[in-house]
Amino acid sequence: MKTGWIMPAVLAAAVALLAVMNIAVPAGSPLHASTYMISLAGKYLCYAILALSLDLVWGYAGILSLGHGAFFALGGYSMGMYLMREIGARGVYGNPLLPDFMVFLGWHDLPWYWNGFDHFAFAALLAPLVPALLASAFGWFAFRARVSGVYLSIMTQALTYALMLAFFRNDMGFGGNNGMTDFKDVLGLPLQADATRVLLMVSSAVILAAAYVLCRAIVSSRFGKVLVAIRESEARTRFLAYRPESYKLVVWVLSAAIAGIGGALYVAQVGIINPSEFAPANSIEAAIWVAVGGRGTLAGAIIGAVLVNLGKTWFTGALPEAWLYVLGALFILTTLFLPRGIMSLLGWRMRSRKLAEPALRGAAREATG
Predict the structure, then answer these.
(1) Does the pTM of the predicted model rise above 0.90?
(2) 268-286 burial, b for 16+ CB within 10 Å, e for fewer?
(3) What's the pLDDT score for residue 5?
(4) Which one of 7, 137, 191, 305 is least enclosed by Cβ atoms within 10 Å?
C-alpha cells in the first residue's frame, strides 16, 4: 500500500514548510507566511477532513449525504462549549460560570448538558461521539428500512436543516443565532498567538493524515471491498448472504465521527460557531469538493476541498457576487467533462474509464463471491 503514504507525506511537507515560513522567516521577507495564511491553511485542512469523511461513504459505499455538515457542526459546537467555559470570568459580564450569552438572555443556572465541558478531554471525546451517536440512530432506522439513493440524500438534508432550526432557538442553550464566539484560549494557550495558530494548523494536518491512513486501510481491506460491492449492486450483495445495512451503518458512523473531529478543529481556528454551519448549502458544497477532486479516491476529496476553497477565498474577495455562479458552473462542468474529478487527470489509481469500471466490478465479485 505504498501509494497510501503519498498524501500524508505531501501534507507533512506542505505544513512543515508553512510553519517554517511563519516562524523562522522574518515578517518583512516575501517568503514569510503570515498568520492569516496559517489560519487559512488550518481552515482548509479542516474542510479536507470533512470532505474525506464524505468520500468514505459516498465514494465507496454509494451513500450520498447532503447533511454531513451537521456532523461537522456538532463537533464544532462541542469544542465551542469547551472554549466558552475556558473564558470563565474574563467574559464581558464577568460571570465565572455562565457564558456571556446566557447572562445576556437571563439564564441563572448552567444547563446540565454543559457540565464537563470545562475539561478539554471531555470536549475532545464528545466532538466525535455526539455526531457518531446521531449517525448511528439515523442510520439504524434509515438503513434497516432500506432507504437509499435520492431518498436518503433528501433525508440527510432534512436532518441538517432541522438541526439548524433547532440551534437557532435561544432556549436551546447554544447561543441562538449568534452562536458562540470571543474565545480566549485552548489548553491555556492564547488562540490569537502565532505559535498557537501554527500548532492548530499542524494538529489539523496530523489528524487529517491519520484519518486518511485509517480510511485507506479500511477501503483496502475486505470490508472495503464489500462496501464497493454494495455500491455496485446492493441487491446482489444481499442475495449472497451479506447484510448491507450493517456495513453501511458502520462506515456511516465512522464517517460522522471523522467529520465531528474536523468541526472541533475548525472552531478553534476560526473563532466562532453558529447555526449557519448546519445550513444545507454547506453540505452540498462539501459534496462538490469531493466530486471536483474525484469521488472514491480519498486523496481527491482532500485536493478538491483545498482547491475549491482557495478559489472561494479569491472570488469572494475579488468578485463576491460571482462565486455562487462559478461554483455551480464548476460542478456542472466537472459532471459533464470530468466525472471522475481531478484525480483522473493525475492517473491516481485509475488510468482510464475503461480500466476503472472492470476494476470496480472485480472488487464487487471478490466481495460477493
Answers:
(1) yes
(2) bbbebbbbbbbbbebbbbb
(3) 83
(4) 137
Provide the CB-side half-sphere exposure for 310 (13 A, CA).
Answer: 10
Decide if 13 is inside a domain: yes
Q: Which amino acid is at 125?
A: L
With bands split at pLDDT 50, 70 and 90, how would you rate the model's confidence at 346? confident
- In the chain the beta strands, taken as DSSP E runs, fall at 180-181, 185-186, 189-190, 272-273
| Beta pairing partners, 181 | 272
- Asked, for residue 294, whether it belongs to a domain, the answer is no
Contact 219, 60 (CB under 8 A): yes
Cell numbers placing 149: 439513493
What are 35-73's pLDDT values in tens digits?
999 999 999 999 999 999 999 999 999 999 999 999 999
The residue count of the chain comes to 369
Candidates 61, 137, 163, 122; CA nearest to 264 is: 122
Residues in CB range of 353: below 8 A, 6 or more apart: 340
186 DSSP β-pair partners: 189
What contacts 157, CB < 8 A, 6 or more positions away?
66, 67, 280, 283, 284
Q: How many angstroms separate the CA atoms of 301 and 298, rounded?
A: 5
Beta carbons within 10 angstroms of residue 328's beta carbon: 11
- Residue 332: how many other CB atoms lie within 10 Å: 10
Instruction: Copy the grid coordinates of residue 66.
Output: 447532503
pLDDT at 369: 53
Backbone angles phi, psi at 29, to 5 degrees: -80, 145
Assess if residue 115 is contained within a domain.
Answer: yes
Please tell me the total count of domains within the chain: 1
Of 275, 277, 342, nearest to 308 (Cα)? 342
What domain range includes position 213? 2-280
- Alpha-carbon distance of 183 to 200, in angstroms, equals 14
